[in-house]
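Mannose-1-phosphate guanylyltransferase
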Amino acid sequence: MKLVLLSGGSGKRLWPLSNDARSKQFLKVLKNEDQELVSMVQRVWGQIDDCGLVDCSYIATGKAQIEMMHNQIGPSVPLIIEPERRDTFPAIALSASYLYSVAKVALDEVIAVLPVDPYVEGHFFYTVKRLEKTLQETEADLALIGVKPTYPSAKYGYIIPEREQNINDGLMKVSHFQEKPSEKVAVGLIEQQALWNCGVFSFRLGYLINILKEKGYPLEYNQLVEQYHKLPKISFDYEVVEKTQNIVVVPYSGYWKDLGTWNTLTEEMGQNQIGRGTISEDCINTHLVNELEIPVTVLGVPNVVVAVSPDGILVSDKGASPRIKDYINYEQGPMFEEREWGWVRILDNERYEDGRTVITKRVAIKAARNLSYLMHLNREEVWTIVKGEGEFVQNGISMKVKAGNVLHIPMKTLHGLKANTDIEMIVVHNGYSDEDKVMELYSSWSEMTKHCLNI
């Protein structure tokens, strides 16, 4: 069996910590067994490892998330890259073409697809393992996992099984689906043994490849990438699952939750405060998450989430927090990005009357990591090292740098930096073009030392 984890969402409901460069699954707000803060993707990848599924797992994600994935779960994780965000059917179709044409997976191999960020107990992935045997024994076209409801939720979709019908080991044939019913309707669905739809699908690779053939889509990964923009923006549920007749569902009775909103995420954080600040004792069920160095004080306000990041500040009643996606403005672009070599935080972004754009950033580079050897065609830069030591290269000439050094980098000047210890610096970009053009020569330090003779 091959496992494909979908990691394409933007996580708008967890603004301001999540943005287009850092989706919700990368937010380090959950505690692991060692009481360390980890992200959803780190937690799930650890559970998959414990279950022995890592070696057969892939992550389908967009270009913007490649560095974050490498940074959080390692550079060796197999990634299937989507050229743009288009919903779950295109993502799963692209994954199937990759497995078929690049990984050379056999057509009778079972593929299981699930979100990268479910909050579940570890034994959930043993239920995922059951999907392979389930498809083999039932000869169904699709096998799903359904969560046994603990209350009549109006937030989740439901899988309704056929009446008076139960296969071995609790398996049930699927009759139809119900998308986010009212609580009153949900009560009746639960009486029919309906299950929460947790977005886990499994099928033989050949089943989906045949669907792609019927729709006239190319089966070669590179060709499908080129035509990806033509695929419909539609969910796998609507395009495939609800059009399939022979479906079975495997019930799961353990803990499961979708942490897609601030009110559900804070229930699992394990602490009511992350970052600098104070919450008064009469703030019952109030959470503060602060990524800035500015202290935040919350007094006498119950059932509230306060989230502070370089992208903005959210103060919301927990019940109202899912509505944030209807109010936020993403036009400013991400103000904080984690990179494989460190992180970048935008401190100021100004446009002046003479047409200049000046951007001030705080940049951190981890020890033994490096920035690429490149040149900017439309801007000059000034770097002020405020912490650490490293080696700076400009036009093939190397020099040691440390805290207190100020470096001027004119336009069209090759430059790179390696951190010997953790480095932090203030970077000021100054240019007359909104979009800088970059020419990268080398990405690794070994390439730089090999080809830059003056080092």
